[in-house]
Specification:
The protein is α+β, with helices and mostly antiparallel strands and 343 residues long. It contains 8 helices and 19 strands.
């Protein structure tokens, strides 16, 4: 909130619509929530949600000069059509700067032209006096974590050696990653009661799929171990999930050549996992190479089947509770831990 007030004061603004400024934290380190109000029929928009949001993402990101990978969709609501999104840090600062400092009416007009529908308003941050309370936000910064060496002080920094027990399976320190918490429970007690005894696993994905996963859950699909069915693949190893086949690296040329990768942190219902659906890796040509020293290559793919093949998204037996982001100064294939990518 103090950061939002500082932005308003420093940039000398008292804007009416189309841009509304709510409360938000330092956007170089925290996600920016925003709501885009479109003058279009909700049911028609929702019927082709994936296509419509992809168009919105392209147009919005071009107008505010951020990469499309930085914008994720949380949900849509009626009245007219309200599209709730999250901007991954540090790009939220750029969005706020573009929509506050520059001529935001011109930007909104450009968005309207690109979308071929009127953009009624863009709301930045949270508005505590409205029905869309901050507690309803999909992202929950209380559960943000920076997994780095304990000797380097940082907000939300954590570190441990060895492994923690999660439902009888090991949970190792995901070094070098930052977690942005996804709100799945009201408090820690509720989370522990529902999922505290579940296994920790990861799911790598291309960044442009993240918004759909946030809103719908992990989608089933075919694969090497699916036996003709549709399943979801997760792994206990974040190193395995970060392979570019899954977590495709992307970079922003305007950000000093830094690369980013995205992996979802999940909890998996123990009743869904057994020796039959704990399967070996499927990436190596040289089977003598060990991918992750913490795990055997024979246990790197967990094949989770939905209760019915009619179900496209698994939301009950796999809970996505963290969006893991890794930023490197060069392409991640240069990291020592990823020697196996070329094996």
């Amino acid at each position: 909130k103090r950061y939002a007030i500082k932005v308003k004061n420093e940039w000398d603004i008292d804007r009416s619509e189309p841009v509304r400024i709510g409360n938000f934290d330092n956007l170089k380190n925290h996600p920016l929530t925003l709501c885009i109000d479109l003058a279009t029929d909700f049911d028609e928009y929702n019927r082709n949600l994936e296509v419509n949001f992809q168009r919105l993402k392209i147009v919005f990101c071009q107008c505010v000069r951020i990469p499309t990978t930085a914008l994720l969709m949380e949900k849509i609501k009626r009245g007219s059509t309200l599209v709730y999104c999250v901007v991954i840090p540090p790009h939220g600062h750029t969005v706020a700067e573009q929509l506050v400092v520059n001529d935001n009416r011109q930007i909104c007009n450009a968005m309207s032209s690109g979308l071929q529908t009127h953009v009624k308003s863009v709301s930045l941050g949270h508005f505590m006096n409205e029905n869309e309370n901050v507690r309803e936000a999909k992202m929950n910064e209380k559960w943000n974590r920076v997994y780095m060496n304990a000797a380097l002080p940082c907000a939300h920094a954590v570190y441990w050696s060895g492994c923690l027990d999660r439902g009888g399976k090991p949970y190792f320190f995901p070094a070098g990653w930052t977690r942005f918490g996804i709100k799945v429970a009201e408090n820690e007690n509720e989370f522990e009661r529902k999922w505290g005894h579940w296994y920790v696993a990861y799911h790598g994905t291309k960044s442009n799929f993240a918004d759909l996963i946030l809103s719908s859950g992990l989608k089933t699909g075919p694969g090497c171990w699916a036996a003709g069915e549709t399943v979801v693949y997760v792994s206990p190893s974040i190193e395995y999930c970060a392979h570019p086949r899954y977590a495709e690296p992307w970079n922003n040329p305007n950000n000093n050549g830094k690369y980013h990768q995205l992996v979802f942190q999940c909890r998996v219902n123990p009743t869904c996992l057994n020796s039959d659906n704990t399967r070996p890796e499927t990436l190596l040509r040289d089977k003598n190479v060990q991918i992750d020293k913490k795990f055997s290559n024979k246990e790197l793919e967990w094949v989770i089947r939905p209760p019915s093949q009619d179900i496209q998204y698994i939301t009950d037996d796999i809970i996505c509770y963290g969006l893991m982001l890794r930023t490197t100064d060069g392409h991640p294939e240069q990291l020592p831990s990823f020697h196996w990518w070329k094996s």
